[in-house]
Amino acid sequence: MVEITGVIQDSPAAHAGIRKGMQLVSLNGHVIRDVVDYMYYAAETALDVVTELDGKQAHYHLEKDEYDDTGLEFASFLMDSKQSCRNKCVFCFIDQMPPGMRETLYFKDDDARLSFLHGNYVTLTNMTQEDVDRIIAMRLGINVSVHTTNPELRCKMMQNRFAGEKLDYLWQMAKAGIQLNCQIVLCPGLNDGEELKRTLTDLGKMLPHLTSVAVVPVGLSKFREELYPLTPFTPETAAATLDLIAAFQEQFLEKFGTRAVFPSDEFFLLAGRELPDESYYEGYPQYENGVGMLRSLADEFHAALDEADAPGKRTVAVATGMAAYSFLCGLMQEAEQRFPEIQCNVYGIRNDFFGESITVTGLLTGQDIIRQLSGKPLGEMLLLSESIFRKNSEVFLDDLTIADVERVLHTKIRIVPNDGYELLDAVLN
Fold first, then answer.
1. Are 210 and 357 in a shared domain?
2. Please, what is the end-to-end C-alpha distance for the chain in angstroms?
3. Would you say residue 104 lies in a domain?
4. 80, 109 in Cβ contact below 8 A?
5. Which terminal Cβ of the chain has fewer Cβ within 10 Å, N or C?
6. How far apart are the C-alpha atoms of 260 and 252, rounded to whole Å?
7. Which tens digits make up the pLDDT trace of 274-299?
8. In what helix (H) or strand (E) does residue 247 lie, and over which residues does it extend?
């Protein structure tokens, strides 16, 4: 049962007489445990609702349009507490965070409900057979952190003795036709090379129900004392990984009509290779994993540049992680060539906070931006990617705010979505 914390005025639930403080027991005879049950069963147009208050049950009937809200409100979105991760993955970035940061940054979620509701990735170690049966019955897509299909190695990498056997859930869902997106965090010397071949061979057997696989390089901060010894990718090992993945892409494309497995942009940048064109990414199924994000940005930027009108004279600055620095320099140079009246200064920010091996833009902090841009020509405005900030906030990872940074650097900051049209619009004003 789940407590009803509110009933929206004039909603179907309110008209039926359901009140705040009641416990929701069932919808159309189905017991409601959490938001997944609720959203699935509440989609019907006619609902028989059972509630409980002070040990007494009551029955209500609701009529509404399909998928319309019933009007019931609950204490949390999940209608339950979040499930935290039971693993101690050797590559987990949260374990590489310095002490003293805000508490929410140290929480590791591993909740299947957040996977099909928000696209989070789960390791399966929190799941039960009942969870898998529900996913199959409701035909829910899910995102899975696989990392390796070698059961013994998976236990070692996740430091969880159940991690290997839980792979059976993956095969069950694939066999049932559940659409699956998977990711592999690749660690040199652990799950790359021959082990990666094994993993991709096994995952290939799930096609076509396997929608996509993202392969991303491990991120290593400077805060790894007493953690498992890992080494970062080099240009040579990144290139070897791209070649290995390309061989599987060729096989999958010929047999199934899809490349299925995609390396993240970081591999191309590190190996010094050109980004593939748009068709390579097949609709960007792993965009949120950093797969094709730069190609999409570039294509949108070029399209926007072709349509743009001449701006007035203007100088702005862009700050980015070191990985994308050369890439963004190229885009800004194209804009300056098209419109000589603008000047855009691009600054690659070295990540002193987490360590120089962290080169992605999304892990930049306010203090590193302040230290490295103080005294630099920033022009009318500093442009920063939205990936740096918490969703719908203006707070950096180190809890500095945009206002804090603006005050020190004496310039306005504009948050720019990961979109080439938006980027050019911010540059040209």
1. no
2. 53
3. yes
4. no
5. C
6. 7
7. 999 999 999 999 998 999 999 999 99
8. helix 235-256
